[in-house]
Amino acid sequence: MSGRSQLSRSPSRKHLKIGCTNDESRLSNLPDSIISQILSCLPTKDAVQTSVLSKDWEYKWTSIYNIDIDDKKLFSRQKSKKMTFVNFVERILLLSRNMKCFRLSCSEKYEATRLTTWMSAVLRRNVECFEVICLQSDIVLPRSLLSCPSLRKLKLNLPCTFRVPSKNCFPNLKILYLEGVEILNENSNTASLEFTFPVLDTFHLVRCKWLNVKIVKIYAPAMTTFICETPSTVKVKNYYHIKIFGASLTNFGSFGTLLENFLIPGAPIACATLVNSCGEGDLRILEKSGVQARMLLKEFRSLEELKLSGYVVKAIAQSRNRAPPPPPPPLPTYNKLERLVVTSSCSNEAVLELLHMAPSLKFLVVDVLNWDDCDYDAMEPVPSCIISHLEEVEFNHFVGTTPQLKVAKFLLKNATELKKVHLCSSGLQLSTLQKNATVEQLSTMPKRSAYLTIVVS
């Protein structure tokens, strides 16, 4: 490793010293702990460059505890500069004595063994927050990563293989974020993979692949948030089960392709998001996705907020018609659900089924772009949430078509507690004249609520 980085060899040293004498004196008189805090708030490169101020400041930077290294921000892509970057990193790892948070982002390709050595060196410093972002696929994660007792937050965004041993790992980890990682079950005798996280709070998976795995079991008694983002390129046949044992789990999110069979028994989930799509034109896949969504949602009896893509809502409705039997499980009644968001277009009938399951709903956001004509006057019974609880509605892609005006009229006629209706064109161009005409048309419709505001945007 280089004893002195090129960063500290600045020809302007005298000018810096002359121009900053008074400020430097005041800073130098501060306690070391305060200086460490100040330097830790600077970009790492700037903190290291304070070594040129004077001889007293030559090693002040070694007390910084937040280290953020990004080769795109630090150096150009010239080969000589890559070596300068390597020297810079290794000087920090050699001299830094108070490391708590370490972030490394590499857009260039470096020796894989060198990167592994860097990670091992960081973990030996009892780091609490560790983040690595890298594109190259030949990196081997150090074994010490899994058992590091000081680690509280881990974020890996690199195409590496994450080898999970049969024994417990991450004894004190609270936040785990894995992106683009291949998770390998090293036990060839079983296709079941188990994670045990004693204190984990948040588990976030993005575009990860499971190797030699059919069943994933996650034991995390303290976990409050679980998010899984599945790549759309995963083949439909690659189904696997994820079973979560988490008595504290309150936030759940599934994004991408709805392929996983999630099993989450007994979790007090208050906020759930299913923004998925899979086989849009394939009814068989649509029905299967709907059954999976129903199986999952029937466990979420404590829901307070639910966000669904139009595909999931459509799949839930389509699964009623699946063959062969048995029929899919019915949705439970969500007595605590107050907010429902449907992020993309789906049928009105599918949304109405959900409204019947949410008697206490207060806020509804729904996309009405492709809603069909419907005789709402013949609807029996009217969802109880509309009659007694609904306070605010937002219609996205509202352009004043006949089906859209009919549903607006239906709500105005039946909602006694409605305070605000927001009609949002969502990028579809509406002239001021059209907006005013829509407001005027709605204003003349019968209303049960005495305090109602209509907004068109």
Secondary structure: elements and pairs:
Elements: H1 13-19, H2 21-28, H3 32-40, H4 44-49, E1 66-70, H5 71-74, H6 79-95, E2 101-106, H7 112-123, E3 129-134, H8 144-147, E4 153-157, E5 161-164, E6 175-179, E7 182-185, E8 192-196, E9 202-206, E10 209-211, E11 215-219, E12 225-230, E13 241-245, E14 251-256, E15 261-263, E16 271-276, H9 283-297, E17 305-308, H10 310-318, E18 339-342, H11 348-356, E19 363-367, H12 384-388, E20 392-396, H13 402-414, E21 420-424, H14 432-443, E22 453-456
Parallel strand pairs: 1-2, 2-3, 3-4, 4-6, 5-7, 6-9, 7-10, 8-11, 9-12, 11-13, 12-14, 13-15, 14-16, 16-17, 17-18, 18-19, 19-20, 20-21, 21-22
Helix pairs in contact: 9-10, 10-11
Strand content: 15-25%
Shape: globular
- Low-pLDDT stretches: 1-19
Share of helical residues:
25-40%
Mean pLDDT: 83
Structural class: alpha/beta
Number of helices: 14
Sheet of most strands:
15 strands, parallel
N-to-C CA distance: 61 Å
How would you classify the quaternary structure? single chain
How many beta-strand runs?
Answer: 22
**What spatial order of strands do you see in the largest sheet?**
1-2-3-4-6-9-12-14-16-17-18-19-20-21-22
What's the alpha carbon Rg, rounded to whole Å? 28 Å
